[in-house]
Amino acid sequence: MAICKKCGKVSEETAKVLSLCVECIRKADKKSLAELEAIHARSRQQFNLPPSPPSSPEGIQCRLCQNKCQIPVGGRGYCGVRRNENGRLKGGTPSEAAVSWYNDPLPTNCVADWVCAGGSGAGYPQWSYRPGPEHGHVNLAVFYQACTFNCLFCQNWHYRERSIMNKTRTAAELAEAVTAQTSCICFFGGDPTCQLPHALAASRLARKQNRQRILRICWETNGSMSPELLEKMMSLSVESGGCVKFDLKAMDANIHRALCGVDNSRTLENFAAAARHISERPEPPPLIASTLLVPGYIDAQEVKAIASFIAKLDPNIPYALLGFHGDFLMTDMPSTSWRQAESCLEAATEAGLKRVRIGNVHILR
Ligand code: SF4
Ligand code: SF4
Ligand code: SF4
Ligand SMILES: [Zn+2]
To answer: For residue 173, what are the β-bridge partners?
Structure first.
């Protein structure tokens, strides 16, 4: 429960950390946007993360993501994992990444499980070992411990305590973790974006070492990477039977900035570019979208805008609407209500999407 400091509206669906309601964020002026930026900067202090992407004129530019950090000697990028060591850019490379992994038995709680080869058997026998869920196989779940965004509701926020860490793993070590039971690798986190050189090298190595059998490469991402890196991810997913899962957090630029601390234009451009690959291998779907239904902020209006954007690219792109529960700096927020989820589902369908579903139903109130 919080009061919007602009319009005075009191609602349990206004987050204390923002103290602005969705309408006031949509029409925020420069001063309000600067205040929102300051909220994000403060939230990063306790993790020793840079308040904003560094822009040191004599620093080295990192081009992995939209933040284009110019990192000074001895400094770190916005993600915390890329650093300038004596004039050389380190972190997230094939020789060292802040990453951990585990085997997740299939079928698993994956945002794409209702349409992918591992969860549904789509593409059997070329892309799946079974005509249905792949019981007996595992997904190698790879968690990258850093991110290019700063979402205030981040449900995996503990990675922030590990973004700046000493223990690292090589791409070869990761590829070695693939066993005869592994049928897919899912790179997530945090976000794989800021450590993509490591993830791409590990994927290629793992595919090479398992050339004669199905080994799908999948990604769960905020979509902020450079367009060149996106092409490499898409190619690996398309040729392996895997998919790229984009989290489209908001369509309105102000709402995105308020919730995630950064701009959403790269994500949208990348999503459109990824959609151009669908015809190369339509099934199982190589591109999947999801949106977290943050109460009070990601409403039917927002979902309709996101769904219209997706539908214009291809109405068959699967779209998962995910239930939210309060976490990180938004623990005062209630979970998504059934009413919100159903109105968002209706909005997405009305926008023309043919494959929409509500995920995480167990947490809806
Ligand atoms: S990956 Fe992105 S956030 Fe990290 S240093 Fe590079 S440009 Fe900055
Ligand atoms: S990693 Fe890919 S294939 Fe495996 S369950 Fe997730 S989306 Fe499906
Ligand atoms: S993009 Fe995902 S991992 Fe990164 S801050 Fe946002 S919710 Fe957390
Ligand atoms: Zn307001």
So the answer is: none
Residue of 93, 99, 95, 103 lying closest to 162 (CA atoms): 99
Q: How far is the CA of 39 from the centre of ligand 4 (A)?
A: 17
Greatest C-alpha distance within the chain: 63
pLDDT tens-place string over residues 236-249:
999 999 999 999 99
Q: Are 44 and 149 in contact, with CB atoms under 8 Å apart?
A: no
CB-ligand 2 contact for 112 (6 Å cutoff):
yes
Token digits of residue 78: 């916005």
> Can the peptide bond before residue 107 be classed as cis, meaning omega within 30 degrees of 0?
yes
Given its phi and psi angles, is residue 29 left (phi above 0), alpha (psi -120 to 50 degrees) or beta?
Answer: beta
Asked whether the predicted pLDDT for residue 328 surpasses 90, the reply is yes
Helix (H, G, I), strand (E, B) or coil at 88: strand
User: E strands along 159-200, which residues?
Assistant: 182-189
Taking the C-alpha atoms of residue 24 and residue 14, their distance in angstroms, rounded to an integer, is 11
SS3 call for 205: helix
What lines the ligand 3 site, CB under 6 Å? 147, 149-151, 154, 156, 189-191, 222, 260
